[in-house]
Amino acid sequence: MSVARLRETLGELSDLGHAEAIADWDSRVSMPPEGAEARSNVVATLTRIAHERFVSDEIGDMLDGLDGLEDETDAALVRLTRREWERARRVPGELAAELARAAGVSVAAWDKAKASSDFAAFAPHLERQLELKQRYIQCFPEVDTAYDVLLDEYEEGMTTAEVQRVFDRLKEVLVPLIASRAGDGVALQGPFPVDRQQQASRLVLDAFGWDPSTWRIDETPHPFASKPGLGDIRLTTHTDAGDLTSLFSTMHEFGHGVYEFDVDERLARTPLGRGASSALHESQSRTWENLVGRGRAFWRWFYPQLRPLFPDALGSVDEETFVRAVSAIRPGLIRGDADEATYGLHIILRFELEQELLAGTLAVRDLPETWNARMKQYLGVDVPDDAHGVLQDMHWSIGLLGYFPTYQLGNVISVQIWEVARRDLRELDEQFARGEFGQLREWLREHVYRHGSIYPPRELLRRVTGSELDPEPYLGYLQTKFA
Amino acid sequence: MTGSPFERLRERLAEVSDLTKAATLLLWDQRVMMPPGGAEARAEALATVSRLAQERFIDDEVGQLLQELRGLEESSDYDSFEASLIRTTRREYEKAVRVPPDLVGDMRRASALGLSAWGAAKEHSDFEQLRPHLEAQLELRHRYVACFPPADDTYDVLLDDYEPLMKTAEVRDVFEQLKQELVPLIEEIGDAGEIDDSFLHGDFDTATQRQLGIEIVRAFGYTDDEWRLDETAHPFMTTPGAGDIRLTSNFRPGDLSSLFATMHEFGHGVYEWGVDRALARTPLGSGVSLAVHESQSRTWENLVGRSRPFWRWFYPRLQQEFAAQLGTVDEEAFYRAVNKVQPSLIRIDADEVTYNMHIILRFELEQDLIGERLEVAALPEAWNARMSQYLGVDVPDAAHGVLQDMHWAGGALGYFPTYALGNVISVQIWERAVEDLGDLDERFGRGEFGDLRDWLREHLYSLGAKFTPQETIERVTGSRIDAKPYVRYLREKLAPQVA
């Protein structure tokens, strides 16, 4: 049995994934709304065919014939393919199709429910998602916590207990930190004209190393990054004249994009050709958004360019005030808008509620009330309506349960990796202050990005940082930053 | 496997349609959105998705289902969805299974290679760069033709891919008629002296052109819920799914051709838009043939968009936006200018009359090539001689002659005739519409096009591909394809240009 045949088969599946990625990107960026129904059929067919081909005995036979390969990449390919094949085989095609269909229906319901802030309209869909997730979990061997099965899908080898340990420690430090620092720093006042913000984003992307022959950026209500195929990286952002968040969301999505862009080309059209896990991915979006993009050195370079673009809003705001403003701790309602410190609590809240929903200790109908109570408890804010509360995120509607924790793990990991980079690279701040980001990017490419999914996330983290998942560097970073 | 054989056939066809639509979207994205660096990965993805669609269609199971469904087909009304679907699928299936997958792969590869060679050859105006590719294409076409039972005319087999069941002999009859009428008409017009169209060449802001194009097609029926319009070097229309119609146009600052390109592509789009939604995800769910499709692009571009009443409605708006260029040009002068007949080198820039001669020339050369009466090496010379004979123009170089179109490089032999057939059919259908609706001029003059669109939808678009192209034309017009109405239309319209 040859690896070449396995690669060929996986290449076809990757091509179907490419088509799906375009179908998805297009439906969010360019599709006329009436095309939605036909599109859902196309996506369902692509998904079903890919699933059918992937779970075939033929792939199992190929994998069986390929044990004990010497080449590291080939061995990794077999390992990862086997893991995914075994997971996929456990899920009956019917259930996989049902999950896909339910996601399509309930994301539309969520959209409507959010627009009218009507949780009751969304509740049956969430119940359906929970029911399907329970059926999904039952396909797997029994584990300590049902939630482990979901987590493992996005973050190989991660357990609920480990997340719990990290999150408990975060809570311990963050709650008092937020209480003592909330309200420091002025709030910026717009307007920030949309075209000017887009201009500013392009300047930043140019300096980070974006290239229009392989990248593009568009506007969507919810920013995301996508790599349909090699040499084709697509970011989206949402630009609102009321604030400057588009700038940070652009840097965030750049982080996702650059990770994918810099994966070794030889891994293309295989399951190894993408970032190692959701948390590792998020660690890189957060690196470029926060560790770089909210850093002092970055603004030393960029504020003199940004300020003249918005003379009305920023004419009287000096650099120091601006830097404090874009990092200010301000407990709020919306996760997507949260600052670096309060963000973690938004995630911890979701992590807890997801587990309670799955365990059946929390009924869907009681969710809004519990949500609001916990927002008050953790962040001291009053939720005025469900659109600004439990309905704010689309994740649950598309069946992403167990996904939220990876966002916060990403924050934690970002600083673990960052500390090593700063140890290896001298004078990063001086470079940033000159608008030079190439050394950092090259270091990240060498140590993280190029490996794609060759190593399981835990092993990659160990290789890069020499340690396990550890919240202390992240907490140290926040405590220093907000001292 | 569950469900009746008919349901199973539908399921299979829906799957093939979904894969085809995925490929359609990949192509659209490639031309409109994709960063150039993604080209290689996209080629792989497209190849895989297209191959899967083909494999799933020519699968033995489809053949077995079609066998099992003979009874249902015979017992169902000819016009019924069931009979139409089985009949049409059988025809396409029987064609598709004759072609070995290896040959399909060879043709696809040769097409990609030929197209990229064409780009370079055209740029350097060097026919020699393309010649080996054309020879390879011809060789492949011979292998392709050999997959089918012998036809009266070898060319029939090629034509059938673009215009199902159309025969070379019938096209030849129609084109002979056109030639007899148009060659003298072109001469008469040439003798009548120049029409001034200098004001059509200037500096026309492209964003404004786009805006005006949108205004026009909105009046025709374009909505943001179901349509979009983008820019590409070569305008096209595509539908990645029901309720999702995508046009592109080419907005050039030097002239106003984008307005006509936009209307042309709208015509293709509105045909797809009007297909009965119940036919979606089946082989019946799109326009019936290239010629009938072209009849509709030409209807909206020429019969509507180059008509006097259309400009009565829209010229004031155009003049307002381009006051500097058109402020002193009156409506009559503008109307004449956009209908000016003048022999020229390039097919896609040709006027309504000479356009057909460009096609006839290609149709004749294609037959000579496939009939081995003309060597590829001698093609440029034959081209130039016939351009001189039919249009009285001298071809300065291959880029403005035999290399101008990409079709042959991509292996599309037999495609060109459908363009001129479209012109012919457009007026046949138009005459029937006017018969039913009465004079449309006043409505157009007020910017009202809904009656025409609804009539076309009811009588033509909604049918999709339920019937053969010939049956479709006969159902709409009551007659077979016939050049007379088209020639009559041209003669009447151009009477003022004739000496």
Q: pLDDT under 50 segments of chain B (min length 5)?
A: none
The percent range for strand residues of chain B is under 5%
Which residues of chain A sit in consecutive blocks of at least 5 with pLDDT less than 50? none
CATH class descriptor name of the largest domain in chain A: Mainly Alpha
Query: Using only CA atoms, what is the Rg of chain B?
Result: 23 Å
Query: What assembly state would you assign to the polypeptide chains in this entry?
Result: heterodimer
Rg of chain A, alpha carbons:
22 Å
Summary keywords:
heterodimer; A: mainly alpha; Neurolysin, domain 3; 2 domains; three-stranded mixed beta sheet; 3 strands; about 5% strand; globular; B: mainly alpha
What can you tell me about this protein's structure?
The complex is a heterodimer of chains A (483) and B (499). Chain A is mainly alpha-helical and 483 residues long. Chain A has two domains: 3-140, no CATH class; 141-483, Orthogonal Bundle (Neurolysin, domain 3). Chain A is 63% helix and 3% strand. Chain A has 21 helices and three strands. In chain A, strand 2 and strand 3 (232-237) form a beta hairpin. The radius of gyration of chain A is 22 Å and the shape is globular. The N and C termini of chain A lie far apart (60 Å). The model of chain A has no long low-confidence stretch (mean pLDDT 95). Chain B has 499 residues and is mostly helical. Chain B folds into two domains: 5-152, no CATH class; 153-499, Neurolysin, domain 3, CATH 1.10.1370. Chain B contains 22 helices and three strands. Chain B has helices spanning 5-32, 39-57, 60-68, 70-75, 81-96, 101-124, 127-145, 154-162, 168-191, 206-220, 257-274, 290-304, 308-321, 323-326, 331-337, 354-370, 379-391, 417-437, 441-445, 450-459, 469-477, 484-494; strands at 227-231, 237-241, 244-249. In chain B, strand 2 and strand 3 form a beta hairpin. In chain B, helix 9 (168-191) packs antiparallel against helix 16 (354-370) and helix 10 (206-220) packs parallel to helix 11 (257-274). In chain B, 42% of the residues are buried. At the A-B interface, helix 1 and helix 2 of A face helix 1, helix 2 and strand 3 of B.
